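Dear support,

I submitted the protein below through the web form. The confirmation email said the job was done, but the results page showed an empty box. After a refresh the structure appeared. I'm attaching both so you can tell me whether what I see now is the final result or a partial one.
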Amino acid sequence: MLARLFSALCLCAGIHASEKPNIVIFLVDDLGIGDIGAFGNDTLRTPHVDSICENGVKLDHDLAAASLCTPSRTALMTSRYAIRSGMTSVI
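What the results page shows now:
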């Protein structure tokens, strides 16, 4: 699953299969699209993240498996829906 994701990112970035890309995945709790300077925020300073966006590929369509951190982290680490791993909350 992750190999397909990396291949898709390489295609988007124009990187050949023989090169080894540097891929950074941010999993952040409670972060909105407008909270980073590269996406238009001029209140909070995020120079390092802005530098990554300026010098690399900036993806602007982000999805989360759930609105809470545990199911989202589980989905990222296992490539499965969190409910299939038993990582959901019962209300």
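Response: this is the final, complete result; the empty box was a page-load delay. Helices lie at 2-13, 47-55, 69-78.
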